[in-house]
Amino acid sequence: LGMLGDIQGARKMFDFALTLDSDETENILFSIVTVLQNLNYYEQMIPYMLKLIEMEPDFKAHLYDLAYAYEKIENYNYSIIYYLKYLEEEPFSDSAWYNLGIIYNKLDQSDKALGAYDFALAINSQNTFALFNKGNILSNLERYADAIPVYLEYLENEPDSFEAMTYLGECYEKINDYVMSRKYYQDAIDLAPEYADPWFGLGVIELNSGNVADSLIFFRKAVRLDDENPEYWYLLGKAHYIKRELKSAMSCFREALKIDTYYDEAWADLGRIILKENLAVKAIPYFEHAYQVTGNIAGINYLLAACYLQVSESEKAFRHLSLALESGKDYFREYSDLFPKEILTRKINKLLKNQGLIL
After folding, report:
1. Is a pLDDT exceeding 80 seen at residue 21?
2. What is the largest CA-CA distance in the chain?
């Protein structure tokens, strides 16, 4: 019945089986748990596993299985409890420490995740999954110099991992070691030429180095390989913007915003072009339409406020600036240059002052 998807019917049969012969209860429970686990019915498995633990408290593997079941149904607090109980009995289980690391990372408890991965690696230095995840956490925490030796050690064990090469290239890029960054991006491309990230990484290096024309080549390649990544479109637009290719820049920024309507850098740069080129009158209908379609997004409201200020429609500017500050006050600095002091009304100045955003 379970294999046919009738889990309720299966549970009735399981419960009935448990009433038949008390001498076989433990074996029946174990069989039930095994069947449900094999079918990935973790939520239904848990009550039987709890009964089994009551009957076999010395069989510590049950604690691991219960912790794993809670992990699979994303009940992470209970999963942590049972992994820790298991580790009290089996402290040298690198898989339990590894799984704890995954859970802590999902709960944004980076320090605990790193500690768990360190325990896993101390027990088993060949646990490449723990190495890779540790490197990713350090990179996400912007601890790039710390992440580099972790990725290097991972590559010693997994020399064909183009993803690790790309992440390593990014770490070197972030600490401005462009020689090593280029090396690992190129190594990744040699292994996986259809993987977009290292092409994008090479574009970032060229852009940061002032080689804008070369950056365009790499950004275009990245976009051709993956046209659903808003960051690719944004930096392609940024390169066009630097070269004063404004039409292409605006097109790229709009593509980025189609994918991610909350991409504030794209909204802000799009606004800068519009205002500097005196295109506010033409842009307002576009932004008003975007506002109607996407709703109360801070970026759109900031741009509408700036455009309405430029065409001297101060009440509409005040309205949209108020809406922007309600939903995205923390992003104002990204847009502050769109609001030059000389065109701000007294009412808008007061609004900004009340928000602690005096220009």
Report:
1. no
2. 88
Number of domains in the chain: 1
Give the domain range for residue 61.
1-91
State residue 5's pLDDT score.
Answer: 46
Q: Give, in order, the Cα–Cα distances in Å from 199 to each of 164, 242, 255.
A: 14, 20, 19
> Closest by alpha carbon to 207, among 181, 187, 183?
181
Q: Can you spell out the DSSP letters for 282-302? A: HHHHHHHHHHHHH-S-HHHHH
Phi, psi of 95 (to 5 degrees): -70, -35
Cα angle vertex 331, ends 330, 335, to 5°? 140
d(C-alpha 262, C-alpha 229), whole Å: 13
SS3 17: helix
Query: Six-digit token pair at 97?
Result: 């420490």
pLDDT of residue 8: 60
CA–CA gap between residue 119 and residue 121 (Å, rounded): 5
- 3-state class (DSSP) for residue 177: coil
- Is 57 inside any structural domain? yes
Question: What is the C-alpha separation between 231 and 253, in angstroms, rounded?
Answer: 10
Residue 74 lies in a domain: yes
Give the Cβ contact number of residue 110 at 10 Å: 15
State pLDDT tens for residues 313-354. Answer: 999 999 999 999 998 888 888 888 889 888 899 999 999 988
- Dist CA 305 CA 315 (whole Å): 9
DSSP-assigned letter for residue 339: S
Name every residue whose Cβ is closer than 8 Å to that of residue 322 and which is 6 or more positions away in sequence. Answer: 351
pLDDT for 153: 97
Q: Answer yes or no: is 27 within a domain.
A: yes
What's the pLDDT score for residue 58? 80
The span from the CA of 190 to the CA of 198, in Å, is: 10
Q: Provide CB contacts within 8 A for 293, sequence distance 6+.
A: none
Q: Please check whether residue 11 lies inside any domain of the structure.
A: yes
CATH number at residue 4: 1.25.40.10
Nearest CA to 120 among 106, 108, 140, 103?
103
Cα gap 159→116, rounded to integer Å? 25
Residue whose pair of structure tokens reads 């790193």 in the numeric block: 114
